[in-house]
Amino acid sequence: MGPDVPLLNEYKQEFFWKRFPQTVLGGARFKLGYCAPPYVYVNQAVLFLTPWLFGGIGTLLCQLQLLQELHAAVLSGMLMFTAAAGVQALAFYAARKSGTVERLGAPNILVDEEEVEFTNCVSPETLRFIAPGKRFGLNVVLHTIISGLLCGFGTWYVFLGRLTSLYGSIGVSLVVFVLSWVTLCIAEYSLIVNTATETATFQAQDTYEITPLTRPLYIFIFIAVDLADRFSNPVPELQLACQTLHVLFLFLPLLWALGALPPLDALLFWGMEQVLVFGMGGSPMSSNVRLLLMFAVSTGITVCNYFIPSALGVVLFSVTTGFLLSLDLSQVGSLSKSPREAFR
Fold first, then answer.
1. Which of 65-69, 117-121, 300-304 has the lowest mean pLDDT?
2. Does pTM surpass 0.85?
3. What is the mean pLDDT of residues 56-82?
4. From CA 275, how far away is CA 292, in angstroms rounded?
5. Cα–Cα dist 213/57, whole Å
6. Nearest residue to 249 via CA among 263, 261, 232
7. Are 147 and 80 in contact (CB under 8 A)?
8. Which residues of 136-158 are buried (b: 16+ CB within 10 A; e: fewer)?
9. For 101-234, where are the E strands, in sequence order?
10. Does the N-terminal or the C-terminal CB of the chain have fewer CB atoms within 10 Å?
11. How far apart are CA 282 and CA 300, in angstroms?
């Protein structure tokens, strides 16, 4: 390739500048390849800023000392839970109203979006374009509950009083507060309204809708560290970690967009394999099914060892199960067949 050859041709550049902002913003489609009415963008903007509105209500009531921090966070979470349930109800209504039959499976993320004919701001076509909805009823309930928890804990995570106690400056606290809510809005939008096309992908098709849980998972990890600092004895290292993570929290959208953080399914399988190998002395597995099976069996054996009262019993049980797990049990079937074939 010569120096004058572009990395992306005109078509790919257009596709990139349509798709990349969607990934950054958690699935909000503010740049389309065709003309759309203004209410399409307004509706998406309102849904995008809804968590910030509810979190702002809780923060304001807390700052005015009308509610305690915990009660304000619970209020914000309940409001977000109600809004998420409303969005899912509208998506279900639009799916029933349109009466279209879709093939089960993830859509092709490498093709352009089909042009949609919008009639009004609450038409089934508009609702399905903005909030496609979930494929499974269990995910509707689960994602709605998680959205409420995320908004509640997120409001608690970025309270101005908490940020001021960490950094000792009102100006820095306000900057962190505003940018943190941008991160929370991105995660909420991807969870409830429309899932973003992630740069980091572990499986070709998201059959069980695991991708929407990826961004909230990382936010809950940040919140867990903050809660540990709140409810434990003062530890300078933990407080320093909270200060650092609050700043890193602002760059989560960039890390998600660049694919620097692994998706949820890959992270869980990797974590289970690390625990199995380094924590329980097992071996790496060749497939996800074997990994899940071996991790479950090893965890069960570890729990059983904890409840055995006799030290001798623990030793005998560990030796026996360790020997059985060290065998390649997949070869038992072939070994049992070979003697029969020898007598034929």
1. 117-121
2. no
3. 93
4. 12
5. 25
6. 261
7. yes
8. eeebbebbbebbbbbbbbbbbbb
9. none
10. C
11. 14
Q: Tell me the residue type at 293.
A: L
Query: Is the CB of residue 84 less than 8 Å from the CB of residue 144?
Result: yes
Q: How confident is the model at residue 329 (pLDDT cuts 50, 70, 90)?
A: low
User: Kind and range of the H or E element at 326?
Assistant: helix 311-326
Q: Tokens in use for 118?
A: 């919008």
**Tokens 């962190």 -> residue:** 176
Cβ-count burial 322-335 (b if 16+ within 10 Å, e if not)? eeebeeeeeeeeee
Rounded Cα gap, residues 115 and 36, in angstroms: 9
**Block residue for tokens 């625990």:** 275
Structure tokens at 265: 């399914």
Distance CA 261, CA 218 (A): 9
pLDDT digits (tens, 9 = 90+) for 175-191: 999 999 999 999 999 99
Cβ distance 149 to 77 under 8 Å?
A: yes
Average pLDDT over residues 77-96: 91
